Amino acid sequence: MRKPADRPSPANRYNTGMPELSQRRRILILATCCMSLFIVGIDVTIVNIALPTIRRQLHASVDELQWTVDAYTVVLATLLMLSGSMADRFGRRRVFQLGLTLFATGSLLCSIAPSAGALIAFRMVQAVGGSMLNPVAMSIIANTFTEPAERARAIGVWAGTVGISLALGPVVGGLLLSSSLGWGSIFWINLPVAFVALVGTVLFVPESKAPRPRRADPAGQLLIVALFGSLTFAIIEAPELGWSSGGILACFIVAVAALVAIAVYEPRRSDPLLDLRFFASVPLVGAMTIALAAFAAIGAFLFVNTLYLQDVRGFSPLHAGLLTLPLAGMTVIFGPLSGRLVARRGPRIPLILGGVGLITCGLMLTSLTNSTSVYYLLAAYTMCGLGFSFVNPPIGNAAMAGLPLSQSGIAGALNSTSRQVGSTFGVAIAGSLIAAGLHGTMRSGLAAASHGGWWIVAGYGFVVLVLAVATTGQRALRTAKTTAAKLDPDRLASVPT
Question: Are 190 and 39 in contact (CB under 8 A)?
Fold first, then answer.
């Protein structure tokens, strides 16, 4: 197939390392990048809808179910910075292709896992590939759509892909689980999409690198692994082992020591994996914190709600998936709209709407019972989808606005790390609260045990709302521009003014 002709584009007045591309080819690049978000998103929702089936067929405990979700997100979070740095150094297209290949391989292995332990291990293989997808795709988009308003619209479309994956994941997962193919079939959906994305990458995505890539920082990477891994393990296992047990206290000590070591060690390197100067950008810090809170909310929601619909209400996987369609529909509709709002009015309005949606959803579900009306549930799911759809595009755009284009791989990694850490802790904290508060069986006790988790979801929404106001003003935007200039003074930073 002949590649579409590349014509000069005014967007390429920015120095991105990309050749000048035609509008058609840039759209094809965006579509290819959206496929990576699609397979990662649908994988999350399919795995969540399959958790009760996996629990029964593999005889998995609640903490093994948590690790089925969190083993993926922990590995992903710890490798995102490394993958973003590798993309800037060795080539974004090359790393993106490697990520697609590894993700597909991990999906195939997951489909044939003989036990819960093997499934958790194969999810880690998936995560290695996944760490090379979304942050690198965001970097490719940032270097393809360099004009700020155009980029905001492109990221809105990219983020809107989450809605499609949320819509299809539970329904496709429910159909597969209802068939005779078995729970392993839920991972097969990733294979054809990864293949099409791989072909699209070869045909349409040009190679690009950072003009001055960072050198490897293995010590910094090990410290990040120690920080996220030990903290997540402690939160997940504390209800069973005890918060004051020696193993849990040791994990918290390791996490604190790793955080201190990062703060001391990284500033002394000429090319640190995590340049602490990034955090002088208020919009970047705000976007990362909002991402952490919003994805903690959605992670907790998907984990608890799936168990509630199937184990408490007795709905089939397909029925449970269909009930979550309002959440997905809101994301499909309002994700791109949020991107347009960011392009025209800035991030404040969509972030405020997102915070209000998450708060409303959390508060509505604090009264959850074994017989809550389905219509009431649908209303709560709609508010969750509305909140999530408005939050997702502005946090991606703010992360890119906070750093120069030459370091877009690191910017994408920071943004994706916040999302994955948020999702990890959302599942871990919600699962821990359920494990600690569950009295009797899942069917009789889950609804009451989940109330504390829903109050926390409302709290996550409140964090989004407060930061939406505090980190999006003109003074905050000036800190982003100043930070970008200090990090890359010789190149144009794409920061809205």
Answer: yes
pLDDT at 284 over 70: yes
Whole-number Å distance between alpha carbons of 76 and 70: 9
Mean pLDDT score, 445-464? 90
Neighbours of 260 (CB within 10 A): 12
Specify whether the CB–CB gap between 478 and 390 falls below 8 A. no
- The radius of gyration of the chain from alpha carbons, rounded to an integer in Å, stands at 21
In this structure, are residues 193 and 41 in contact, taking their beta carbons and an 8 Å threshold? no
State how far the Cα of 33 lies from the Cα of 97, in Å rounded to an integer. 11
pLDDT mean over 127-156 = 82
Find out whether 430 and 303 touch, Cβ atoms under 8 Å. yes
User: Residue 404 contacts by C-beta under 8 Å, 6 or more apart in sequence?
Assistant: 484, 487, 488, 491, 492, 493, 494
Q: Which of 6, 202, 212 is nearest to 93 (CA)?
A: 202
The four Cα atoms 191, 193, 194, 198 give a dihedral, to 10 degrees, of 140
Task: Tell me the residue length of the chain.
Answer: 497
Measured CA distances, 112 to 71, 120, 255 (Å): 17, 12, 34
The answer to which of 4-8, 426-430, 448-452 has the lowest mean pLDDT is 4-8
Proportion of the chain above pLDDT 90, given as a percent:
25
Task: List the alpha helices (DSSP H) in 346-450.
Answer: 348-365, 374-401, 408-437, 442-449
DSSP 35-64: HHHHHHHHHHHHHHHHHHHHHHHTT--HHH
Residue type at 234? A
CB-neighbour burial class of residue 314 (10 A; exposed 0-12, middle 13-18, buried 19+): exposed
159-207 pLDDT, tens digit each: 677 767 766 777 788 888 877 778 888 999 899 999 999 999 999 988 8
**Residue 291 contacts residue 415 (beta carbons within 8 Å):** yes
Task: Kindly tell me if the per-residue pLDDT of 6 is higher than 60.
Answer: no
Q: Which residues contact 180 (CB under 8 A, 6 or more apart)?
A: none
